[in-house]
Amino acid sequence: MFQGKHSDSRIQKIPDAEQDIRLLSQLGEEQTLGKKLGRMAKENPLAVISAAVILVLILGAVFAPVLTPYSYTGMDLRNRLAAPSAAHLFGTDEGGRDILTRLLYGSRISLLTGVVPALLSLVLGTALGILSGFAGGKTDSLIMRLADIMLAIPSMLLAMVIMYTLGGGLGNVFLTLTLVNWAGVARIIRSETLKLKNTEYVEAARVIGVSKSRIMLRHILPNCVPTMIVLFTLNIPSSILTESSLSFLGLGVQAPDASWGLMINAGRQYLYTAPWLCFVPGIAIMVTVLAFNFLGDGLRDVLDPHQNRE
Amino acid sequence: MIRNICRRLGESVIVLLGVALMIFVMLRIVPGNPVATMMGEHADLAVIERMTAELGLDQPVYIQFIRYITGALKGDFGTSYSLGKPVSFLMGTAFGNTLKLALFAALFAWALGIACGISAAARKNGLADHLFMGVSLMGVSMPIFMVAMLLQYVFAYHLHWLPISGINDWRGFLLPAVALGWNSAGSISRLVRSTLLDILQEDYIDTARGKGRTQAGVLIFHAFRNALLPVITMMALQFSSLLSGAVITETVFSINGIGRLAVQAIAGRDIPLLEGTALFTTLVVILGNLAADCLYDILDPRIRKEV
Questions:
Q1: What pLDDT digit, counting tens, does each position of B280-307 carry?
Q2: Would you kindly state where each structural domain of chain B is located, as residue ranges?
């Protein structure tokens, strides 16, 4: 999407001074987004494998009905707690339901509880972060004190209190995880905004009389995009983990919806007789989280040189 | 330095008040009268009203909040609806267990994290490096209840080495401590490794090598000593997160700690207990982070001299 804006001929064709300034700001970046991703693909095979794993997971979630002959809810009591076999690759649960089938359908909910809150908290956190950093003064301290308060409460406990207030269910899980995660996003985007605010091109835009909201939307926001991509990718696994913990405690997604965490919660009483009930969805969570973490780290290495690994 | 610490202390108090207000308001907007919930479906309406008045729940929210805060400052967090005992008493008993668990977990995490971090940094990109860093990433990606249940399954159920749950003696603490400390060990080892690798680039390391120090001597006496500062800060931060992160571990291993108390509070729709545990845990975390901050100031001679 950034490609093509760097050719000199295009800069000359655009008469608008503000456009010039924006293009100038992007000229400073030596590479386009596409090229950076290409570099990641070449240098970091782990990130590419992770992206492939994530793609497979998404395809599995979408095509679940095609991929499995079993029903997601249908009971088969003669086959209760069957060990993994050719017919049931990962065994069956206490109702005789195929674990692989439930895993595939459960991935729909688990992936959603990763992606939706990560997206919502990204939008909320970015909006508040840019506003906070750009406006400064009272707005800044108000938003940042609020973020301090949210970050001071241990996230699991905060999630538990919010879930208690809202009650269980998928929608409330989305809302809770958004409320838990926005503050971290806002802090990072704010510091990014503070850096960008003092660059020459923002100064130049201000001098030629561009309105504040326009500066925030057209000059600061686009330059936060690399950081936002990294934050989004890394918030997905943390949301999946928190949701699985909430569901494990029985506070998250409620049946008949099934997330991986809820499957583990239901399987816990059979830990010693049918351990696959817990360990299969547990491994699914681990693989998913690992894939998103690797991809996020890979993206951070190429997109965000300021914020390298610890 | 003293002024710095005082400023941070002041900020912490404000944040803590904000936390108290937020939790208080959140729990007050739950629909339904908590007294009615507590007494069940068949309770007499008059009794419910009398109880509501006795507990001060008919007052405006801000008066309730002021009362709650003044009480909390004196150590009175109200009485648990579901267990019928003072919240502070319940928390006192539970905190002892949580503290013990967190200490065991911290010892495990610190020892393992530092040992793995040093051996990984000793040979960058060597076998140990890849192995430890891979395992630490897996550790961070595994939900804590998975680690806990895996340990339970292997070491308690299959091998019968350790008790499945309960904390009757120190052996009971081993599995929960490993489950809880697992993630921290991962972060500490990564920090130790990266700090050491940075330090090993410094000139004084070359000097030490030039003097004929062995690789182990350079690593431990020259590099690790200088890496201690960020590592100790991280260790202090991790400790407070261990104290607050024990919810799942305590549930899986049936340990009566603060986290399990919070879970019980939610199950019993017990607002004072939930409020107390949430507030107390946050207080512990804030104090822990404050201590980590101050520790940094005290340990770093450059900051210490500035004052």
A1: 888 888 888 888 888 877 777 776 655 4
A2: 2-73, 90-306
pTM: 0.83
User: Given CB atoms, is A40 within the 8 Å cutoff of chain B?
Assistant: no
Q: How far apart are the first and last CA of chain A?
A: 30
DSSP-H helix ranges across chain A:
8-13, 17-27, 33-43, 45-62, 64-67, 99-135, 137-152, 155-166, 170-197, 200-207, 212-214, 221-248, 260-267, 276-303
SS3 A160: helix
Task: Identify the CATH class of B90-306.
Answer: mainly alpha
List of residues 6+ apart from B102 with CB closer than 8 A: B180, B239, B242, B243, B246
**Furthest C-alpha separation in chain B:** 87
Within-domain flag for A36? no
Provide ipTM, 2 decimals: 0.83
Instruction: Give the one of A146, A289, A310 whose C-beta lies nearest to B190's C-beta.
Output: A310
Whether residue A30 is contained in a domain is answered as no
Chain segment B209-246, per-residue pLDDT in tens: 888 888 788 887 888 888 888 888 888 878 877 887 78
Is any Cβ of chain B less than 8 angstroms from the Cβ of A284? no
Closest alpha carbon within chain B to A234: B141
> pLDDT tens digits for B135-147?
888 777 888 888 8
Please list, in sequence order, all residues whose beta carbon lies within 8 angstroms of the beta carbon of residue B35, skipping any fewer than 6 positions away: B48, B51, B52, B55, B57
